[in-house]
Amino acid sequence: MDDPVLLTGAEGRVGSAILSGLESKYDWRLLDREPPADESSNDFFVADITDYDAVYEAVDGAGAIIHLAGDPRPEAPWNSVLSNNIDGTHNILQAAVDSESVEKFIFASSNHAVGNYETDDRTPDLYRPHDEFRLDGTEFPRPSNLYGVSKATGEVLGRYYHDEFDLSVANVRIGNLTEGHPPKDYERGQAMWLSYRDCAHLFDCCLQADYDYEIIYGISDNDRKYYSIDRAREVFGYDPQDNSAHFD
Amino acid sequence: MDDPVLLTGAEGRVGSAILSGLESKYDWRLLDREPPADESSNDFFVADITDYDAVYEAVDGAGAIIHLAGDPRPEAPWNSVLSNNIDGTHNILQAAVDSESVEKFIFASSNHAVGNYETDDRTPDLYRPHDEFRLDGTEFPRPSNLYGVSKATGEVLGRYYHDEFDLSVANVRIGNLTEGHPPKDYERGQAMWLSYRDCAHLFDCCLQADYDYEIIYGISDNDRKYYSIDRAREVFGYDPQDNSAHFD
């Protein structure tokens, strides 16, 4: 990807993980609602993603978009996810098509889009290494909150923009991203842990690979996993280095 | 269903078909944005479904909801489907849960939620009797327009409200409803034709049957069909009487 890569929500945690591994590899355009906390040598767009004109300005000329911006709170109220996550994602996708420059759209979906597969009769075994249940991205969403509904809707929006406008779309259902080590005393978080370096590597893969429309899970190669990473390996060449079991 | 049944979008075409077959069978509450065209002996609520308080008043005390209200135009712009179809459906579902009276939620989804399975290499064979391709409700949405995106989102919202609050949810992906006879010179419309009497019967089935969360297709038993009605038969006892081939 020689053209600039637009990273929305750049100031958030996922944005930090991506930039910590890939800052020098791409020509970045960063977008966030707030100005950058640290001085940045990258192009920086201060914009609300619900403002189409501001979004278009940031999108036009980019070759790929990593779309992280939105209300990240699992407990976010409906009005916020309706506006920031659903309407905001539509805005970015529409701008991507209108600009005619964007070829790849990489969407930060979430484990919360499928959180209600974690039924009482499956847990806590689901979070333990011996358990063989796997979600692999071919299952329907079963959101565990309205934030998860908004992420599932983003996946559907991507499907439409892929089918109609031939945009390559990768949806990454991100697990539990923490820096340094997996969450402690939290089996679920350990099962879906994503290390910073695996996160950066996975989004790098999404910028490099060829694909049509994909839904994959974004986690490290954890012994406890109940999300399959087979599809991420096969289509994107994802080769994670970390495993929450190494920190036991 | 002895408790009142709330029918939203009652003044539209699907509402007319349902009432033409079932008006005397249930204790109806009708809701529409506009006052009724004809005098009605049923309770009638003039309300915009994006107005939560007005919606709650209509929902509270109902035992079931048939939710048809929304912008019905396949070419409807994003802002309209975002508000009327996505936000409106959330409002009704939230009111259903808040009221504690509603047990069943029957959602008018649409063939447009899966319109992009009709690819160039499948059509027009897809619309002809010899073709064996079938969509059966286990496939991911592939909307052909933003209206279809909004319907797919309604299905996801229903999934969340079912999983979290134990509401029975039936999503009916309605085909091409026309009164009297199937569309002429329109193979696609003949393939997904739904007669008025089959429409009324199908929604009657949805009010009577026991189910958790279902996605079914709402079409007559057309020789040309590419939507399976097996699930509607099995779970809901749907027994359609019409077939667009009888009008050739």
From TrEMBL, chains A, B:
Its EC number is 1.1.1.388. Keywords: Carbohydrate metabolism, Glucose metabolism, NAD, Oxidoreductase. InterPro entries: Epimerase_deHydtase, Glc6PDH_archaea, NAD(P)-bd_dom_sf. NAD(+) binds at N84, S110, Y147, K151. It catalyses: D-glucose 6-phosphate + NAD(+) = 6-phospho-D-glucono-1,5-lactone + NADH + H(+). The keyword Zinc does not apply. Residues 5-177 form the NAD-dependent epimerase/dehydratase domain. The keyword Oxidoreductase applies. Gene3D superfamilies: NAD(P)-binding Rossmann-like Domain. Pathway: Carbohydrate degradation; pentose phosphate pathway. The active site is at Y147. One of its GO terms (molecular function) is glucose-6-phosphate dehydrogenase activity. One of its GO terms (biological process) is glucose metabolic process. Belongs to the NAD(P)-dependent epimerase/dehydratase family. Homodimer. Catalyzes the NAD-dependent oxidation of glucose 6-phosphate to 6-phosphogluconolactone. This is NAD-dependent glucose-6-phosphate dehydrogenase. It comes from Haladaptatus litoreus. The lineage of its organism: Archaea, Methanobacteriati, Methanobacteriota, Stenosarchaea group, Halobacteria.
